[in-house]
Amino acid sequence: MTMFSRPASRFALLAASLTASAAALAIAAPVSAQQSAPAAATAPAPMSAQDLITLPRLGAPTVSADGRLAVYTVTDTDPASYARTGVPYLLDLTREGAQPVRLDFGGPVSGLSFGPDGQLYFLSDRKPTASGDERARVWRASVTPAGRVGTPAQVSSFDTAVDGFAVSPKGDKLAVWAEVARGCPQFGCETDGTAHLTGPGDGRLYQGDEGFVRHWDSWETPGTVSRVFVFDLAQGRTSGSGVAVDGPIGAGGPSGDTPTKPFGGSEDIAWAPDGSGLYFVAREADGAEPASTNLDIWFSDLSGKPPVNLTAANQAYDALPTPSPNGQYLAYVAMARPTYEADRMVVMLRDVKTGVVTPLTQDFDRSFGTLAWTPDSRYLIATAQDVLDTPAFRIDPQTGAIDKLDLMAGNEAHIANVMPLVDDRLLFTRDSIAAPSELYLSQGYGQAVPLTEITTQRVAALAPVEVERFSFKGANGDTVWGQITKLANQAGPMPAILYVHGGPQGSFNDGWSTRWNPRVVASQGYAVISVDFHGSTGYGQAFTDSIRRDWGGKPLEDLQKGLAAALELDPQIDGTRACAMGASYGGYMMNWIAGQWSDRFDCLVQHDGLFDMRSFYYATEELWFPRWDFGGTYAEQSALYEKWNPVNHVDKWQTPMLVITGEKDFRVPYTQGIQSFTALQERNIPSQLLVFPNENHWVLNAKNSRQWHDTVFAWLDRWLKPEGTAAE
Description:
By secondary structure, the chain is an alpha+beta fold. It contains 11 helices and 40 strands.
């Protein structure tokens, strides 16, 4: 269960791999995670929460069909009001040393995408006329290599607001999606979002066979789902009533969301290279939906007939439809085991003409999360977690050969948004623990050069950090990896912070995070220790699977041994002053540690953590998650749920705890936090409760993020820094 988006890591030290005869602890020589700022009269300031929140954020790029121009958006945050604004930039990829040019569309835009006509298509809620209304519509505008934007013209001719779009390869059709009643034959009906209103009141009436009641952070609207419609496009304007790619209701097409919820986006929709049809990912919205991970890939020929389910034979997860530019193949990823959302994602190759499917990466024990074809259809470029990095791989569809690409000096860290271009060029973003995303370009699959400096100078002006990778023998004698993040030039002992990631099938890998960020915590004078315990991703599927039915067993042993290994490795860390913190499964582990390792830490920070496995099971939305991890329903496996249930051990709780929760969190409902806070109060344990009325499983609002960090830092300082210690 991806209960918690996982933070990550950056460049630094690479520990030597363990061999069968190696020592239990593998140590690497520390390497600075970034270049220190030039010498100055005063030492550079450590990174603050304000820095984290207001650093510009790079979005995914879009590239023109000829591979010359790239457009990307940088989100700026006002340091006083915390208002966020997306600013688009254009960059000429063919001119060495070209500088980004800011684009002016006359107002806010989103979803920028180059069409085959070379124009930029985008979403905007501007009024089409002086008397028109504000709603998201599709627009387009010309743009020159120098960054001059032509007058925007409205593309969508209908009234329904658009959530997303995709222009066909020939520019003669436009796919759009939004929340539309499943029975509506056109793009938008008066019944959209109102099927649950069954009487004079505002109560929602749900049937027992209609799937989710609520999902992630919103209540479902029965009968209304995200749907895709395709319109003819001529002279830059849509016409007709549109064709529903899911087909008429009850005719055999899918009944659920496209894009899929809660995290699906444009990667769920792909045009056939000749524009003859549309591939899309969908799921069924029925009574089995909360217990099913069965996403399928469908194909619509745009005739209005029901689409064809291309992956009906697989009852597990299928996603990322990626047709080859020559139209010969459809690549996608698939899991093998139904009801398991963290199974290995194997790259599959479907011959479009014959329908024969070949599992390309079946023998490669890594799970691929992105796919892209090279323009000549010769290779697939894919990314996958690998130990603490997320590198790119080149896959030969003819032989199945897989080459790990070395695109960066030092560690690959977190590579994302890979776009293969003509002439064996790769455009991609890369981030790490030390710094946020920047845009890079590789020539001939060689090491890349940076194209942007969105945050480089601001980050370099801050006190540098070191990130050290280490490995040790964890539970069952298996090799387990971790990282230590600390200020590079800090003198004296540093208190320890044990970071515990969520998922639980996740990783604190080497990447930047805008929420659980090791660098900003380390900049407060702490040594942040993260351990990729049994159940983590990037170490092979058996390691990921090993947490099943063992939530409080091997992972806790790994955390205990990992903390000890880090303290042995780095004598600068003061293990007598230590706090632990985590969210989601990491929050569960805080509650579990409180009862199982109760004398080790000076304080705990528990965010959206599971407290009572029984009440959690009956209140969460995605039931496939607990059923897989605990081997069945609560009724079927009650003994196992209770074996690993933190509520059964509150009699041993004694560690001060800060509890944080969001009222819109339907994954781990906020009542779990209330219950843990009540347990703390009953035992007179120093405690605090921070509740965000408008946050979900994550804290996303800039002001709330500032409050989160201020509260957490004050709590850590209170218990770990002598001058800040205070009695309850």
